[in-house]
Structure formats: C-alpha cells, structure tokens
Amino acid sequence: MPFTIVTQGNFTSAGVGVKVPLPSSADYFKVTNLTQLATTNATGRGVMFEWYKNLVAADNAIEWKKTNSTDALNMVLASSGGFTYVTSAPVVEAQAANAITAITAASPAVVTQTNTYSEGDIVRLYSTTGMLQIGGMDFQISSVSGSGYTLTGLRASGFAAPGTAGFTRRISKNAAVDPEFLYVTEITKATSAVVRTSVDPTAYYVVGMKLHFSVPSSFGMTEINGLTGTITAVSAANYTMTVDIDSTAFTTFAFPASSSSPTARLFATVAPAGAKTSYDPTTGVQTGYNFTLQPFHSGNFVPYMFLAAGAQSPAGSTGDVIVWQAFKMEN
Amino acid sequence: MAPELPLQFSEDLLSTPQFNLIHSFGADLHYAEAHIGKTTRMSRYERLSTDGGQLDGSGIDPAPEVVVRSDIDATMEIFAKTVVINEQVTLYENDKVLTKFTTLLGQWLREKEDLLMRDLLASSVSYINATGGTNGDQPTNISRNDVNNIERILLGNDARTMLESVDAMDKFNTAPTRDAFIALAHTDITPDLQNVSGVILKNAYPSQEGLRPEEYCSVSRFRFFVSSKAAKIPGASLNGSTVYTVPMYGLEAFAKVEQNNYSAILGYRPPYVVSSVAQNSQLYAKFAIAREITNQNWISGLNVTTGS
C-alpha cells in the first residue's frame, strides 16, 4: 500500500507553533527546513522531521539533525517539540503550562513571564495568586515581548493587589463551536452599556447580534443578569461592544475580591442569543446580519497537525523556510 | 505427537464499548430541506410588553408595539467515517466482518453526533463556578446550594421543565421526584453527586418505568444524566484540577437540525470500485447536522471540580 501525498505547502517560520489543517486523516507527515539545509550552525539544527500515525507519540518526532558546524546528519527521536496530530476539537493547545511572575493591577493589566506566545494568542490564566478572581478566564494578549504581554481586556486598576504568581496555557482561538460565550471584564453604567470582554469580540460577534448576559451577584451589576441586548457597535481597539441596554441605574460592575476560599461565584459572561435583523421592504436590504460569522458552526477544523517551533522542532526558528507534506496510505 | 487443532472462536463476539449518549435527547429536533442552502434559521417572536394598555375614553388609540423577532441560525455540516476491508479478511474470517463493521459505523455515527452536541453546549453556554462545595478549590465540588442557584436562574427566566414528575408510591426507601430540568454531568463527579444534600439516587425513584440507563440521580429540580465523554477542561481550576462543565436546561433550550435524507447514510463500495485488483472494499457512514442554542434564557450550568 503506497503512500499518496494528500496535501503539501510551505511557510516561513515566525518562531511559533503552526497548525496545518488537513483535508483528510494522515498516516505520515514530513517536514523539511530548507533554510537549515543550506547552512550549518555551531549547534546542529533539525533539517527534516517525520511522523507516523500511531507510531510516533504526541509531541514527538523522528528528527534528522545536522551535527555541530557540519552537514553530517544524525537521526534521533525527539521526545518533545515535535508533531501533535489533533483529530478532535481542542480547547487547550498542545503546550505545557507557562509560569507567571507578575500581573499588574493596572488598566490594562500587564503580565510578566518568559513569553513564547504570539500577538493575538489567547491564553487561559489559572492559579493566579493575588488575582484569584480572574483564575480560569481566557485572555487575548497584545504588545508581546520576550518577557510578557498586555491583557487589553482586563482593566485591573481597581483590583486590591497585583498578581504575584500563576500559570498560563495557550488555548484555541476558536471554541469547538462558534459563536462562543465570552468572558466579561467590565460593563459601564450608560444609556447604552459598553461591555468589555477578555478577548477581541470582533472575531466572534457582529453588530445586530443579541447577547445574553450571565452576571453572578458577586460582580455587583445583578440587574443585567439574564437580560438580552443587541450589539450596536463593536470595537477591536479596546475589546468592547455597545449594547442597547440602559444600565444607568444599575449597580456598578466590579470584580469580586481575590480570595482563596471560593465564596464568590465566577464568571461574568455573554453568550450568543441569535440576531435582531431588519428588512427594508422598499430597498430589499437586510441589515444586522453576517452569514459568515453568525450561524452556529464548528469553530475548529479537524484534523490538523500542530508543528512545534524551535531549532530542533518542525516549525523551525524565525525566518526558516519550511516545506511540509501530508501523506495517506492508499487502500 | 498430538494433532494440530484449529483455533475456535466463541459463538458470540464480546461487547464493543459505547459511552452513554446524553447530549442529544434533550435537544429539539428539526429538519432541513435539500436544495435551499446550508443555513437553517429558527425564529422566535418575543413577548409583547404588558406595560400600560388602558384606554382612557378619549378615543385615542394606543401606540402600536413593534413586534420583535429573534433569529438564530446554524450551518449544516457533514461528518464521515470509512473502513476498508481487504478481501483476505472476508475470505478467511468467519465472524461476518462486513456486518460487524457496519454496526461499528452505526455506533460511530451516534457517538460522533453526541460529541458534536456536547461541544455546542460546552462552547456557547455561560457557566457559573460552583462555590458551595467543600474541597477548597475554585470552582468547588457540586453542592445543593449551587444546584438551587441554577434552578433560580432558569425559573427566573420562565424556563419549562422537561421531565414529568415521578409520583410517590407505597415503597420503602423511595421518594417522589418533581417535574424536572435536565443536567448532564461527567461520570467523574458521580461520587460528588451522591453527597449532594437531598439527592435521590435513581434506584430510590418510586418507579423505574421509562427511565433511561444514563440517568444517575435527582437533585432538587434537576435529573442528572452522566457520560464518560461529558465536557471537561483539564487543569483549569485554582488548584490545577480538571474543571467539569455541567449544562442544565429546560425545554427548547437548544436544537439539533438534521438534513432530510442525509441524517444517517451507510454505504458500501465494492472491491472493483475501490481497488485496481479488486481486493479492497469500503464501508462508510456519513451524516449532516446543524446545532444551535435556541434560547440562552433556558439553559445555564455549573463549572465544578471533584470533591477529592
């Protein structure tokens, strides 16, 4: 039963893991690092990586690597930083936990950690000592550097104390099903309430969508709990949405205090509740609807192959040109 | 030397494991017609306001109210699985592999559908952290107080129960259950369910008639159904434990849409089609499904951890 290439492609490494969507299941996957083939390094780099279905463990790879400063090849089994074949919609990406050393009580909050995430990634924070009220929430990150990033969706200046420890794990940008629920971090008191979410809402919601609010009493603004509002504006700059709910007379929205004893119900969320559409019978124009974003549909396409990044990994180092091929056995 | 004896198969195959299918039976079932697009829209007219309405005798009509309609859409998606059988298998084996493999594909079809509905509930519904348990984690293990909170949310949103009451009978150690909402839980939290105040385990219902095998217990206004494949998020609690999401819902909270003539297709491709030397045949199963949350007011749920 010979192998057939089912798909192939290439990319230039940005130094971060890469998802390769597959049109069918794969039995063999091969990656070649063209940049490293043409050069040598003081520490030998991986130039070719192979994966066999059911024979190579998750995050492993058969690695062909150059020896130090020469083109001579060694073949080894890489026990981490390899391939992860994903066949069901994941929440948590195939990555280890990453320790946090600080989260500022600022607006926006800034996280300090040895960072390998990319701009726009979504991470789940947990065990956030000092800021336990955000533990378990997902945040989109921006202004990334090697030592941390900003949580645009978290206005933490009202928190009693900064976070002093914790962990993150990168999660899928899309849930198994979209549109998904989002975490709410702030709701203003206004004739049209402005809602801030922990991730950029423009990737999930559109103007005209209805949102159902779930706000536990520990967040103060209980009046909005259970209400449904329609989005009238949405902003990627501040992760905010304006909804047609008059919250002027509502109780102020605020995070509960950080507490290691679970006395406060978490979290405040919004969930998709359909759309408010309008149809002009004169012009025939339908507004408030986006057929691409709005219908419930799968958020993650599977199967896909996740390629880890790094000098000894298939997604390579920044600037490396990578060629990949997915094979399937002929039957 | 003793003669060589052939291997003998037992007369029956052993059971193929199957997890409890709990995520579809509470869904509203709808059907989509062919040839009119892949998006199915469900619409709901919202209630009219009950404010005002009294005529003052002046002859002036009350202002008409603009009727509001909510549209909820879902995209039809197709999923498939195939199995290839070499002719030597059918030639030499005696356990009717084609029949058995067809059964396996049928099982895959229902299991896949169950997981897709699970993913919908896990992704697109708001959950609240349990706080009434005793394990000191965040969220805690499930407690009666947490269950009552969800009941309050659903009742406050005028949700309707899905299951009828089980009336009391003159039997020792049984207790009636009220008309109930449905809760779906992972089998990992069954020890915690047993410890919830006021729990009525299934065997203590006055009657077992009509109960599904997946049902585990009743707590307050909820009857719990369990599956080993229910939703969970590894390592997401304060203490790094697995967080289990427990959807809790009433009538018409979410829907499953089946495509007419495409809800369950099982097929066979003969060897002369699949293989150039006519040695491999192929069985396949495929189905189309769309799923959506139809009323967020009538579904809620808990994030919980295990008690130990």
Report on the architecture of this protein:
- The complex is a heterodimer of chains A (331) and B (308).
- By secondary structure, chain A is an all-beta fold.
- Chain A has three domains: 3-85 and 302-329; 98-171, Elongation Factor Tu (Ef-tu), domain 3; 177-298, Ubiquitin-activating enzyme E1, FCCH domain (Elongation Factor Tu (Ef-tu), domain 3), CATH 2.40.30.180.
- Helix content of chain A is 1%, strand content 41%.
- Chain A is built from one helix and 26 strands.
- In chain A, the strands form six sheets. Chain A has an eight-stranded antiparallel sheet.
- In chain A, a hairpin with a 7-residue loop joins strand 4 (46-52) and strand 5.
- The relative contact order of chain A is 0.24.
- The mean pLDDT of chain A is 88.
- Chain B is α+β, with helices and mostly antiparallel strands.
- Chain B has a domain at 128-254 and 297-304.
- Chain B is 18% helix and 29% strand.
- In chain B, the strands form three sheets. In chain B, strands 5, 6, 7, 8, 9, 10, 11 and 15 form an eight-stranded mixed sheet that branches.
- In chain B, a hairpin with a 2-residue loop joins strand 8 (215-219) and strand 9 (222-227).
- Chain B starts with 27 loop residues before the first strand and ends with a strand.
- Chains A and B meet through strand 15, strand 18, strand 21 and strand 24 of A and strand 3, helix 2, strand 5, helix 3 and strand 14 of B.
